[in-house]
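Suppose a colleague, Dr. K., hands you the sequence of a protein chain of 331 amino acids and asks what its three-dimensional shape might be. Before reaching for any lab equipment, you can write down a predicted structure in token form. Begin with the sequence itself:
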Amino acid sequence: MENNERVVTVGHAIVDVLSPSDDGLVERLGLHKGTMALVDGEKAELIYSSLGPATEASGGSAANTAACLASLGEPVVFVGKVAADPLGKVFSHDIRAAGVRFDSAPESRVDAGTGRCLILVTPDAEKTMCTNLGIGAMLGPADVDVASITAAEIVYMEGYLYGERHTDQAVEEIIRVAKAAGTKVALSLSDPAWVDLNAPHFDRILDQVDLLFANEEEARRMTDSGDAQSAVEVLAERCETVVVTLGAQGSLVRTGRDLARVPAAPVDHVVDTTGAGDSYAAGFLYGFVNDLGPERSARLGALASSEVVSHLGARPLRSLAELARRSGLTV
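The predicted structure, expressed as tokens, is then:
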């Protein structure tokens, strides 16, 4: 079968459980508001039992990016692992229904199920995430889709895959395959707390990253910089293109010697910031493979992000392709 997808995304296959919560519950559960923490199965069950009514939807950082790319009309592959369990069926159905090619067969194991992420969304739209990766944490070199990566223009990985983990070997194999094929490598730093834990590991592969995504806090912590622009300058010494999102203040994009500050797209009411960075990355990646240029790609990223943060859940409820067309941003 011919592989015609220009973008491959790689990450953890996760089913998100989103629950509106107050600050008191976050505190009582001993969680740090606004961060992501990995939890074992027992802790996940404790948190889940403490939640009120929840919305369940397929998620995972790179999978969200893939779904948004498909909504923009860009053919895309997602690589990740699911178990042969009910959540695995939910994830597989949802990602394919979104228009993403997902060829991974479910695996039967007694020690790991499909990953899940419990997301507490407070009234200020901030998200606190507790993730049990399940079988996704076992992604290895044998799971790398060599044919798709070789045929693609760019492979995008979530940073959650890297940092003294079994999945490190998969990341390194992906980079090896991509470099041999001339496929660009894109990476998201994923989470400020993750950067704190794994900055030395990221440092080992940054020189092989062509396109780096980070939010302001991640970029500052990765570089020990006092502000976003200084962080961009440091990261640009390692990566060809650096994109740093600034929330409501827009984003900074550095390509070569050129630095652009791009405004955020307007949002009437921010409901849930889950997936904001994932959707922004999708818009930028669409612009990248369609040669729209850094600034226009950033505007498309901002537009995609504005749709996702306007409702509960990390995936678009409206066609991003139609929104982009009306805004004059797509080809």
